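Quick one:
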Amino acid sequence: MPSEDVCDLLADVEDIEDIIGLNDVAPKNRYKNKPLMIPKVRKFKGVIKESPALKADPDTTNFLLGSASVYVKTWGCAHNSSDSEYMAGQLAAQGYNITQEKDSADLWLLNSCTVKNPAEEHFKNEINKGLEKNIKVVVAGCVPQGKQTSDYLKGLSMIGVQQIDRVVEVVEETLKGNSVKMFNTKREDGKKIGGAKLDLPKIRRNPLVEIIAINTGCLNQCTYCKTKHARGELGSYPPEEIVARAVQSFQEGVCEIWLTSEDTGAYGRDIGSSLPELLWRLVEVIPEGCRLRLGMTNPPYILDHLDEMAKILNHDRVYTFLHVPVQAGSDAVLADMKREYSVADFEKVIDFLRGRVDGITIITDIIAGFPTETEEDFQETMNLVKKYKFPSLFINQFFPRPGTPAAKMKRIPTQDVKKRTREITEFFHTYKPYEKRLGKIYTVLVTETSHDGNYYVGHNEFYEQILVPKRPELMGKMFQVKIVDSCKFSMTGDLLDDTSVVRPAPADPLKMGQLSGAQLIESKSKNQIFLQSFAVLMFAALMRLLYLICL
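Output:
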């Protein structure tokens, strides 16, 4: 039977997009240096400012660039985690040692989240810790992108959310003692695009899971949201680039793909495409047994595609799972939040999909204590939660984020916010979604390790967590289990005696910390050398021919 710690492991999770996986790898094993050296892609063209704090350090330039050690820390959503994987990969490809031994690192790369005050405070404290230890610090993510002028960021090198492909240059200049800022928006033909190319090298946090950001930014103007200040307007990646990344991932042993963005439902509206169009192209390249998990989508944009989404969510290579944040059960509060949908719209999404997709798992988010929320508004939210009894519910107290319209609104008393948060949390814990599952048989795909380290974690077709015995031969494999126990957040399964254990991925996964795309980079490098050599030979032959003709 699983421990209470395992049963409660999701109790404090604030957002499904914060979940990168249950296999929190031991720090020493998370990243290892990949001894692969490639030429720099471009010369540094950024604006460099001398940092007084670093200029006085006599050891500032005593690094052999490309051999220093870098500690990478990430806050926030799956999109941020994907960005960190790419930045770590590019640094490793240039010979840097990616380490989790933070105190011995030469430089800290801190990738931030601006959704809530606590996340930014943790980020700020980590910066101060690094500077106190005389460690060089580079900041990235939504916090510096949203407000570069924050006092605690002065003098630091910064990487914008669309400039992660410049991380090597920024790190090199920082190690030299310079302060560098890279914040440009990537555009093609004057139009914003998704960001850095998806075929860059990366180090996956979990070698079995590929996180693909399909777009950046959103189409909303939510009054409480700070992320819009950082990620900006919608910018979608071309479908062919996303599909190519998926194909490469499966060739490297990945068996599960997560699509992420600030709003997956808005994908493609800026490039004449749509989320269903992308998903149909992806399922064509997903190997049998491998799975795709769709990230968060807001109600307004999925409403246009309910029929197609129901068909896709019934596909055997797509998890029957959807995260649709409602935030409030009151139309008045939704209007003040500028969420651009009504409670009836949200209910239409839930009712339609539950009616068309058997057993679908739909989860949502609630913000308790928004400034204009009355007691009657809150009771409407409670009624919505009681009506649907979501298997996972992410309950957040309202935090006023600087620079947002909601931060200027008069706040309701703190004790009322806490009371409402407590009330909805207490109700959430009154029901157990899996208590009637004993004896059920499911096919699971195992990709993670439980937080207590005692189990492997598999997911059935509904993306429900099932704890299985921790046997090495089961990781990355698919097999059948019988449910023998359950708790609030998960079930426990025993393998059937006659079940087959198969690896759905077409190749063995990369080792922990191994560089994704290394063969591709090496191939490109060799091809470049060949083409350059061939061009030189052709030029020499042409010169020789001209010389003979002139004679």
